Each structure stands twice: as C-alpha cells, then as structure tokens.
Amino acid sequence: MTAVAAIVLALSLQSIDSQLSTSSSTRDDTTHSSTLEDAQRLFYNGDYGRAAIVTQELCAARPDDLDACELRTASLLFQIKKALGETGERDKAAGWKLCTVCPALMSAFIADTVRAQAFARARLKTHPDHQDTLFFLGKIDLNYVWLQLGTLGRKTGWDEYWEARRSLDRLLRMNPEHVRARVARAWVDYIVGTTVPRGARWLLGGGNKKRGLLVVAEVVEMGGGGYFVQTEARFALWDMQVRERDVPGAMATARLLASQFPENRELRRFLTMHDPTAG
User: Fold this and answer.
1) Can you give the three-state secondary structure of the chain, one letter per residue?
2) 47 phi and psi, to 5 degrees?
3) pLDDT in tens, 211-225
4) CA torsion angle for 107, 112, 113, 116 (degrees, to 10)?
5) Angle at CA of residue 94, ends 93 and 100, nearest 5°
6) How far apart are CA 252 and CA 3, in angstroms?
7) Could you tell me the pTM of the whole model?
8) Three-class SS of residue 114?
9) Helix, strand or coil for residue 224?
10) What mean pLDDT value characterizes the chain?
11) φ/ψ of residue 256, rounded to 5
12) What is the mean pLDDT of residues 28-40?
C-alpha cells in the first residue's frame, strides 16, 4: 500500500469512527438497511448480477460497510461460478478460457476484496476485538478462498485461509453464539473434512465434516440472528445435505427455502429433479 493510500485509509477510518448519531444519519441508515435487504433478497433468489449492482453502489458510498461489501464479493463469486458452469466444461482451466465474462468479474471481485480487507485489517489494528470486523474479515477471506481453491481449482489463497481461521476463531472465543461466525467456521470444518485426506488435515488446522454439518443443523434448529442470518444458515444446510446425498433432508430444506425465495432457479431445478410434482 502506498503512503498516500495509507493516509487516505487512515483518515477515512478516523472519520467513520467519529461519526455522531444524528437524525440525518438515522435516515441514511434506514435507507441503507432497506437497500441491503433488497440486495440480500436478490442474492438468495439467485439474481447475483443485480445483487452485485446494488451492493456495488453501497460499497462505493460507504467503503466501511463490510456487510454490503461481503455480499458484493459473494455475489461476484456466484456470478463467476454460474458463468463457468454455463461453458459446459468440466475442466476448470478450459472453462475459464471459454468464459468471456469471467475476467471482468474476477477483476471486480479482486478489487472489492482487497479494498474490504484493507478496511477490516486497519480497523482491527486499533480495535482488535471488534466482533463485526473480525467476522467480515474472515468471511471475505473465505469468499476468496472458495473462489480460488474451489471454483477455479487454483492452489492459492492460503494466507487468506489462515487469516480467516484466526479471525473467526478469535471471534468465537469471545462470542461462541455468533451465528454467522459459527456457520462460516462450520464450512471450513466441512470442506477440509471432505476434500483433504485424513492424514493431511492437520496441515490445515484440522477439519471434521460431521462437526461442520452438526453445527449448521443446530443453528437452523435453534434459530436466532435475524431472517437473512437464518437464510444463510439454511442455504448452507441445504448445500451440505446435497453434498451428503441426504435427499429427504435436502428436499425438506429446499421446499422451505423455495417458499421464501420462489425465483431461485437452482432450488426449483433441484425440487423438480427429485419430485416432478413440485414445480
């Protein structure tokens, strides 16, 4: 980071931290909340392009808004994943070469990820126990990891992986009931537990797919955390159930999600595939 960029970032953070609660900011927060909810609904309905557009506007207006910026990177991640799938190529490298929209999406993803990480890391230097920042740094890091290692099959992202684990583990030591952190951390357990040979899992800090699945199922059963927090947990549960070939469980979860997000084509396709009468 250049000296000028560091100064700008420091001044931005100082200004953000010193903002007072006024009637004007209250109105702005209300408007922002509504727009973020719109973006979340678009995302869970599978409209990743429009979700990315809405969150881009939010991030541009308030670069410290890590909630919106995390959703922005997630939306771009799923856009890339969808575009690669539409190439019809099973080989990830070949699919990337055929994906005409992927380079631009990747550039946007990297730019937004780096910007959000910079704000989060800078804030944690002065507020190391700030729970929201710890969570969003970990979650944004994991979006990068899932894109590089999972979607693209590239052997990079290890620094972000370890930073995500440290950030989420620190948060969960302070607040073991943080719902979104529990789900994000459960994904780490599940992915390491299912994709890394047992004898090598210790190299990545360990992983346990049963524990990951159990944590997510418990979060869904117990509830809490708000509507979209629970939505995120339910989609995680559905994804894990599909991976585990738990068709009855996945069908039950998909039916509930489809009733809430009827425009999600992936849910409809899954339900139609396993129950033709569900369409």
Assistant:
1) CCHHHHHHHHHHHHHHHCCCCCHHHHHHHHHHHHHHHHHHHHHHCCCHHHHHHHHHHHHHHCCCCHHHHHHHHHHHHHHHHHHHHHCCCCCHHHHHHHCCCHHHHHHHHHHHHHHHHHHHHHHHHHCCCCHHHHHHHHHHHHHHHHHHHHHCCCCCCHHHHHHHHHHHHHHHHHCCCCHHHHHHHHHHHHHHHHHCCHHHHHHHCCCCHHHHHHHHHHHHHHCCCCHHHHHHHHHHHHHHHHHCCCHHHHHHHHHHHHHHCCCCHHHHHHHHHHCHHHC
2) -95, 75
3) 999 999 999 999 888
4) 160
5) 100
6) 54
7) 0.85
8) helix
9) coil
10) 88
11) -65, -45
12) 71
8-state DSSP, 198: G
Classify each residue of 210-238 as buried b or exposed e, where b means 16 or more C-beta atoms within 10 Å of its C-beta: eebbebbbebbeeeebeebbbbbbbbbbb
135 with 184: CB under 8 angstroms?
A: yes
The half-sphere exposure of 112 on its side-chain side, counting CA atoms within 13 A, is: 31
Cα distance between residue 99 and residue 103, in whole Å: 8
CB 80 within 8 A of CB 72: no
